[in-house]
């Protein structure tokens, strides 16, 4: 494959995907509405076609204009988007849909492709835009990929969990980096052993390309850091990366309640472990960036940005009330 169309391509996963494709000598075109700053505006290696991917006519025009070998769908949030794209790009060598680990509908350790059941999706959920239906919609998008493959389209899905790294607009990890960077004592909810699988964004980008090149039609592939860490270990790693001393203070539900804080108020906290098996993707030759290296890049990007994650977690004043209570125990 020599040419690629990235639907999206300017914000986070798509942005890193474009860089990865360029590094592997693809001719790249991005297709989006042009409402966000284009980091590749001055790069003559990247063409830009403007249009709304939810408009089938605009998407069809892009398919005709670009005629790509591979299509990477980074901004398909509704099943109808996937069905339209797999129909319009049916003759391409590969169509890869960015799904999500949230598509899984059962709590299993680990969650495996083809074994762990996916969420169901009602008609109402399929057209909803709320966070509550996100996993349902992603699961239905996966089923659209499988249906397209049954019709002869080389369509595949990649399922990342929480994605972090440079240009992360969600700022979930930024909240924790900011805490460790500014304060000597950091409150960690619960006992710190919570595990929510995460994945470095450049590894998602390479996974998408590798699946396009080597994946099997009709298959989904989990992607995630090969080395998992607990929430406490993540905070400690941030401290090591920043070369700063950090005291981790555990606080359970009763202690947090003194600051009117709940466990789930903390970003990257999840009551039940969320772990994806990545063996299937690794069998294609994909490799994960060493965790220390990935965190160093994420921290460097945070320090160079104006992101602080504010609003993603509890106010520090509320945490101070919790810390004062813990000091009396």
UniProtKB/TrEMBL annotation:
Q: Which Pfam families match?
A: Epimerase
The record places domain NAD-dependent epimerase/dehydratase at 4-224
User: Which domain of life does the UniProt lineage start with?
Assistant: Archaea
InterPro entries assigned: Epimerase_deHydtase, Lipid_A_modif_metabolic_enz, NAD(P)-bd_dom_sf
Map out region (Disordered) in residue numbers. 108-137, 301-320
State the protein's name.
Answer: NAD-dependent epimerase/dehydratase family protein
Q: Which organism is it from?
A: Natrinema altunense
Taxonomic lineage: Archaea, Methanobacteriati, Methanobacteriota, Stenosarchaea group, Halobacteria
């Amino acid at each position: 494959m020599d040419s690629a169309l990235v639907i999206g391509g300017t914000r986070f996963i798509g942005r890193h995907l474009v860089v990865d494709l360029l590094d592997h000598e693809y001719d790249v075109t991005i297709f989006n509405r042009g409402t966000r700053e284009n980091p590749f505006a001055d790069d003559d290696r990247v063409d830009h076609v403007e249009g709304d991917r939810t408009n089938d006519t605009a998407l069809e025009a892009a398919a005709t204009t670009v005629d790509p070998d591979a299509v990477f769908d980074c901004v398909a949030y509704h099943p109808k988007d996937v069905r339209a794209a797999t129909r319009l790009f049916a003759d391409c060598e590969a169509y890869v849909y960015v799904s999500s680990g949230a598509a899984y509908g059962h709590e299993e350790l680990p969650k495996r492709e083809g074994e762990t059941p996916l969420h169901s999706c009602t008609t109402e959920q399929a057209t909803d835009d709320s966070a509550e239906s996100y996993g349902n919609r992603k699961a239905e998008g996966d089923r659209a990929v499988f249906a397209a493959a049954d019709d002869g389209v080389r369509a595949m899905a990649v399922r990342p969990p929480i994605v972090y790294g440079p240009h992360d607009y969600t700022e979930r990890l930024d909240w924790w980096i900011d805490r460790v960077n500014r304060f000597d004592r950091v409150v960690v909810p619960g006992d710190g052993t919570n595990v929510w699988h995460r994945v470095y964004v450049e590894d998602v980008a390479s996974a998408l390309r590798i699946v396009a090149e080597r994946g099997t039609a009709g298959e989904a592939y989990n992607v995630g850091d090969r080395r998992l860490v607990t929430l406490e270990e993540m905070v400690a790693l941030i401290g090591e990366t920043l070369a700063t001393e950090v005291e981790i203070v555990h606080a359970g539900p009763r202690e947090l309640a003194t600051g009117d804080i709940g466990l789930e108020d903390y970003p990257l906290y999840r009551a039940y472990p969320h772990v994806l098996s990545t063996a299937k993707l690794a069998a294609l030759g994909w490799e994960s960036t060493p965790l220390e290296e990935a965190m160093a890049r994420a921290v460097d990007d945070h320090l160079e940005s104006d992101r602080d994650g504010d609003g993603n977690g509890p106010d520090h004043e509320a945490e101070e009330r919790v810390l004062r209570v813990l000091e009396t125990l």
